[in-house]
Specification:
It is a single chain. This protein is an alpha+beta fold and 143 residues long. It has one domain: Nuclear Transport Factor 2, Chain: A (Roll), CATH 3.10.450. The protein is built from five helices and seven strands; from the N terminus they run ααααββαβββββ. Strands 1, 2, 3, 4, 5, 6 and 7 form a seven-stranded mixed sheet that branches. The two termini are 22 Å apart.
Length: 143
């Protein structure tokens, strides 16, 4: 299974970093920061808390992945995401929901094979009870 799906969520939140302090509730900003760190450090336990149990990822190949699949791929020791920058970011917040996304080029290695892919991405967040969780991610390859 392609590793470009899992890393795409990472960029959604990293992309919005500077904008988060100005446009989102404090607790969502804290959750987004924790999610960034969990993905960058391949912290499966933290990802387990920050992703909803019914989380779905539609990856850049058009495939669907579950929370368990996403975490397994992201924490694979043979997968590494390199530094990246976001060309655009999107932040939309309403009540107990939010979309954080943008456009970026991802680079890294997957089982020793280098990859580079430019994508559009969007993470949908929902506040369930007292905590924010990612419930859905959509990724599309950019031209």
């Amino acid at each position: 299974m392609s590793k470009t799906g899992p890393i795409l969520t990472t960029i959604a939140l990293l992309a919005c970093g500077p904008a988060l302090a100005q446009t989102v509730p404090t607790d969502l900003g804290q959750a987004a920061k924790a999610y960034d760190q969990a993905q960058l450090t391949a912290n499966g336990a933290a990802l387990g808390r920050l992703l909803a149990d019914d989380y779905v990822l539609i990856n850049s190949n058009g495939g669907s992945e579950t929370k368990a699949q996403f975490i397994a791929e992201l924490t694979d020791p043979d997968y590494r995401l390199g530094p990246f920058s976001v060309e655009q970011s999107i932040t939309r917040v309403w009540g107990d929901g939010a979309i954080l996304g943008g456009v970026t080029t991802l680079r890294g290695t997957d089982h020793g094979t280098a990859f580079s892919v430019k994508v559009h991405f969007a993470d949908v967040w929902a506040k369930r009870g007292e905590k924010w969780q990612v419930i859905f991610t959509q990724v599309t390859k950019a031209p």
